[in-house]
Amino acid sequence: MSFMTHSSNLSQLSKSRAARTMVLHLSPDLDSSDPGRETVDLAVLTQRSGWRAMIASSGGRLVTEAERAAVRHKKMPIDGRGAFSGWRTRLHLEATLQAERPALIHAHGIDTLPFALALSRSRGIPLVADLTQPLPAHNRTKKLLEMLKASRGMLRVPSEFMGKHLHDTFGVEEDRLCLVPPGVDLQHYSVGFISPERLQKLSHLWRLPEQASIILAPMPLAAEMGQKILLDVMREMRGENVYAVLVGNDRHAPGLRAEIEGLVGSYGLNGKVIMPEDCPDLPAACWLSSVIIASNLAPRGQNLELLAAQAIGRPVIVTDVGANREMAQSGETAWVVAAHDTQAMAKALREAIALNTDQRLSLAERTHNFVAENFPQHAWFNGMMELYESLLYPSRQTARANVA
Hints:
alpha/beta, Rossmann fold, 2 domains, 16 helices, disordered C terminus
C-alpha cells in the first residue's frame, strides 16, 4: 500500500512556523506505555522547537518529566467511562480551548478520539489522531472513524501493518493515513549514559541474581500478549540459570496477574519469574538483560521497547505477528519465530544467551545501526511536525507539491 509520508529538515520547518503555535495533546494517561511515552516526547520536542504544547490526561509517572520541560499538564478523566465522566471532561476541555486557543488537537489513542472530534467539530480545529495499536471491529470504532472522515483530520500510523489494518478493516482511505515510523532517542538509550548506580539500583529493586541470564519481557499484561507462552518456555528451561522479568500491569485485563502468578507456582517457577508492574528505567533494564523478548500472539502496530532494546545493543526475539517484523531484521538484529511455537522460542533464547563476547559486540553494532538508520527520533519528530503543518497550512503544502 502507498501511504502519505512526511520527512523534512527541522531547521527549514522552523522558519515557516507561526510563533508560539499551540498543540493540545489528549492522552488517556501518562504512564510509561507507548502512547504516554510518545505523547510526552512529542510535547517536549514541540515546546523546544518554538511552539507551545499542553497535555490533557488522567495523569501518571511521566507528568513530572513533561512539566520539567515547561509543558503544562491538565489533569482530567480522559480515560474515564460513563456519560457523566465524559460530559465533565468535555466541559473541562471546552474551557481549556477557550483559554488557550490551540491551533491543533492531537488525539493519542482511540479513547481520546470522541473528545477530539467533538472539539474539532465545534471549534473548526484540525486534528491528528494517533492510532498505534490494532482496534477491534466494534460499531463504536467504525462510527468514530467515519466521523473522522468528515472532519479536518488525519490518521498517523507507525507502521505499514497498522495502515493496512485501518484500511482493510475500517475502509479508511489511504489519503487520510500518514505513515510516520516511531523514533528512539539514541542518546537516552546509549550505553555511555547508563551509570553503574542506575544498574545497581534497578538490580536491587527487582532482586536480580548475579551471574544469571535475564529475559526481559516488557509487554502489557493483556490477553494474547504472550506471557503464558513465555512461561511455557521457562518451564522447559527451569533447570537452567535463567530468570524472566515480566514488566506490565493488568489494568486493562483485571485478574490476569493473579492467573499468571498461579501458573508460575504450578510450573515450579517460584523465584525465577519477577513481575514488576512498571519499569522505572528501561535503558538500565535492557542493559541488565541477556535478551529482550516480544512474545505477543496478537498483532501490535508498534513496539517502542523492542526498538529501545536494539538501540542499546541487546539481542531480541520477536514473534512473527503485526509490525514486529518491520521493527527488527530477522537474522540480522533479531530472532523472528512463529507465534505459539515454544520450541522455536526456547531454541532462540538458548542461542541468544550462548553468544560469546565477539558475537554480542557484532550484534550490538548491527542492532544499534538498524535503529539509528530507520528509527531516529529526529526523523519521527520532523515527520510529525510536517504532518501538523500540512493541516495548519494546506496552501503551503499545495505550493510545495506544485513546485515539485
